[in-house]
Design goal:
The structure holds two protein chains of two kinds. Chain A is an all-alpha fold. Chain A has eight helices and no strands. Classes of the chains: A mainly alpha, B mainly alpha.
Chain lengths: 175, 194
């Protein structure tokens, strides 16, 4: 009993002491500011009703601003029709490829195999008299700085006339 | 303890401006003082914002308040005060840890340091030795003990209401209150006249 009385007395003393712990007065605008924030927070835009678009379109139709019913949206072309259009395109591409394929193969053939073939062109050229001991200095005029270029005829004329012409060309070129 | 009539709450639920104002007017003092005492002078500049955030949360959730449960509206509001204050403290502690670990300024220390040349007006209310001692003693309590003590000793809520706010039994409230009082008496024994 004495213990309880002592504790009550202490509690009373503590409460008196706590009265010294005062808090600042609220700012004068606190209530107004808070109510304003609550109103702004509650000010939300409602969602449109589910039948909003239908209602508007019905109104426009009634006023004669639109006519007819709204067409159902469809694909620009049906899938089957698009498939049919693809068939002739594929056939045309196959024909074109068949036509071009031999040329393409020839153009991209193995270069080693091509070089190993006996060259008739080189054989004909070798028949032309040519001084194998001549140096570049002998072939090129002293006052010329032209570097001799290797020139190979693409399709040599194997007739006598052709050989003469070829020889004349060589003589003119290295004179 | 202030009681808000159910009809006012019902009108506030319908976004009645006068009802909303009445609720804020009635409850802003106890809400502000509880926040002030619970968070302490470290948050003296944030108290108004914290209180406004509490009221915003209350009015956002007001449709969920059910008077049939037998809980007073003011008690229900104090559950928001408690939860929001705990959130604020949690955020502050996380910030303090990250700043301290970075070594770029000790936020905790800067709050505790007093600057006599530049005291803020809000701090002047606490500018007494006893008030400072009470403040220090309060913040020596754990969050749960401090909230129970503030609600009981400063706001005079009954034990049942405090139990509602804290989400615990009345027995737990009694136990926490007893320990909190004992700790406060111990820390303030130099000032107690027994």
């Amino acid at each position: 009993m004495d213990h309880d009385a002592h504790e009550d007395h202490e509690d009373t003393a503590l409460r008196e002491l706590l009265a010294a712990h005062v808090v600042p007065e609220p700012s004068p605008d606190f209530v107004d500011d808070t109510v304003l924030r609550i109103q702004l927070d509650a000010h939300t835009v409602p969602d449109p009703s589910p039948d909003f678009v239908e209602t508007v379109m019905a109104g426009l139709a009634r006023d004669g601003l639109v006519s007819g019913t709204r067409p159902t949206l469809q694909r620009a072309t049906e899938l089957g029709e698009r498939r049919l259009r693809l068939v002739p395109l594929l056939l045309a591409a196959a024909v074109l490829l068949g036509f071009l394929l031999p040329n393409l193969i020839r153009g991209t053939g193995d270069p080693e195999a091509f070089l190993d073939q006996p060259s008739t062109s080189f054989a004909e050229v070798s028949s032309v008299s040519f001084d194998e001991n001549a140096t570049e200095h002998d072939l090129r005029p002293a006052d010329s700085d032209v570097v001799p270029a290797i020139w190979l005829p693409s399709s040599p004329d194997n007739t006598e006339h052709g050989k003469d012409l070829l020889q004349q060309k060589w003589q003119v070129r290295f004179k | 303890m202030i009681e808000i009539p159910n009809e006012i709450v019902a009108r506030a639920r319908e976004r009645d401006q006068d009802a909303c104002r009445r609720i804020v007017e009635e409850l802003h003092r106890p809400v502000l003082s509880t926040i002030h005492r619970f968070l302490g002078k470290r948050f003296v500049d944030d108290v108004d914002d914290v209180a406004q955030d509490v009221f915003l949360k209350v009015f956002r959730a007001i449709d969920r308040f059910d008077p049939e449960r037998g809980v007073k509206f003011s008690t229900w509001v104090f559950t928001f005060v408690r939860n929001h204050c705990l959130d604020v403290l949690k955020k502050k502690r996380l910030t303090t840890v990250s700043l301290s670990s970075g070594g770029a300024g000790d936020d905790e220390t800067s709050w505790e340091l007093e600057d006599p040349s530049g005291r803020k007006p809000a701090l002047q209310a606490l500018d007494s030795e006893l008030a400072s001692q009470i403040e220090t003693a309060l913040h020596g309590l754990s969050d749960d003990h401090r909230m129970v003590f503030v609600l009981r000793e400063f706001e005079q809520l009954d034990l049942k209401s405090i139990a509602e706010v804290m989400g615990c039994t009345e027995g737990t409230v009694k136990s926490r209150l007893h320990r909190a009082k004992a700790a406060m008496k111990e820390k303030l024994k130099g000032y107690l006249r027994t």
